[in-house]
Amino acid sequence: MATPQPSQPSPEPCGWIRAYNEAPEVFNAFAAAEDPDGLATRKLRGLTDFEGKEGLEIGCGTGRFTSELARNFACSKLWACDSAPLMLEWAKGACADLDVEFSLANAMKLPHKTQSVDFVFASWVFAYLPITLLEKCLKECHRVLRPCGEIWALESGDAGQLGAPMDGNIHGLLDIGFEIVASVNTELRFPSETLARETLNFLMESKAPAVQGCSVPHQILILKQSRN
Q1: Residue range 30-50, pLDDT digits in tens
Q2: How many CB atoms lie within 10 A of CB 167?
Q3: What is the largest CA-CA distance in the chain?
Q4: Domains and CATH numbers, the chain
Q5: Cβ atoms of residues 214 and 225 within 8 Å
Q6: Which of 32, 59, 183 is nearest to 125 (CA)?
C-alpha cells in the first residue's frame, strides 16, 4: 500500500512538519515502526515509577506512547495534549478504550493548574524546539509540576541520520539541566521495504537513510529533568 500523500500542495519545506500537520497517516506509519519490541518503554519502567501518579504527555502525536503510558504504567490519571487537530484525532482513536483525557493545546500554554501533575512526558518534542520556544515550554512544564515532579523525554540518539527538523539539539538539552539516564538500541521495523522507503523518503527527503529490507537501526535516548 502506498503511503498517503497530503491532498493539497504544501509550502512547508520540512517533511516531518508536513506529515504532522497534513498527513498523520505518514507520521503514524513511522511511529508504528519505531521500537517495535517496546524496549524503550520497558527501560523507562525500570527507571521510574508512575504508579498512582498523575501525569501529562505533551505533543502526544498519534498516541503511540500515550497508549503505552495508559496501559503499562498504572497512572492514577493521564492527560495528553497536542496542538495539531489531525494528530489529536488519531491519538484519541488509539486510546479509545483507555482512560486518557485529551486536549487541543500548545505546550507553551498548557490548560492545567499550577502544581497539578506529578510528571510530564514528551517523546521527540524538546530537542526540536528553537531555544526561545523550548524555554517557554519548559517554563510551563515546571509550572504545572508539583514539587519534586519530573520531566521525562525520549529523543533520538541518531537524529542526524533520521533527518528530523533541526537534527535534534541533544547537547542543548544537557546544557539546561536534562540528563541522559539511558540509551536503547532498537530499530524502525516496517511491514514492507516499500512502506519503509516511502515513509522515510516522505519524512526525511534527501536525508533519508538507505533502506535494505524492512528495518533501519535506531537509537532512543531517555532523558530526565527534575522540577526547579
Answers
A1: 999 999 999 999 999 999 999
A2: 16
A3: 49
A4: 15-226 (3.40.50.150)
A5: no
A6: 59
